[in-house]
Automatic annotation (TrEMBL):
It comes from Arsenophonus nasoniae (son-killer infecting Nasonia vitripennis). Coiled coil: none annotated. This is tRNA isopentenyl-2-thiomethyl-A-37 hydroxylase MiaE. GO terms for molecular function: tRNA 2-(methylsulfanyl)-N(6)-isopentenyladenosine(37) hydroxylase activity. It comes from the Bacteria. GO terms for biological process: tRNA modification.
Length: 100
């Protein structure tokens, strides 16, 4: 990106656009991670819990049916996700070369 592009993006009036773009990028990453977690690491009940958590962000980003206040307090979810994982590290290590 050119310096002019950086300067333009850095202007306060463009902050909402930059933050929205970042939210969409993070949401896509979270959706990919959730797919893998749901497929390989959690049981059905935990899978439903993960989908419900992600739904708040999808509603905000795609459907515009929630607002930023709805998302407050939802960011500390990493510990909740770790608690849902049902298999030990040795199983993860055993699967790491399965695709080769």
């Amino acid at each position: 990106m050119s310096q002019a592009g950086i300067d333009k993006a850095s202007q306060p009036e463009n902050l909402a656009i930059i933050l929205c773009d970042h939210l969409l990028c993070e949401l896509k990453a979270a959706q990919s991670a959730m797919l893998l977690l749901r497929k390989y690491a959690v049981d059905e009940q935990s899978s439903d819990t993960l989908l419900q958590w992600l739904q708040l962000f999808e509603n905000f980003a795609y459907k515009k049916i929630t607002n930023i206040d709805t998302l407050k307090g939802q960011i500390d979810t990493v510990a909740k996700i770790r608690a849902l994982i049902i298999f030990p590290n040795d199983l993860i290590n055993a699967r790491q070369y399965e695709c080769f």
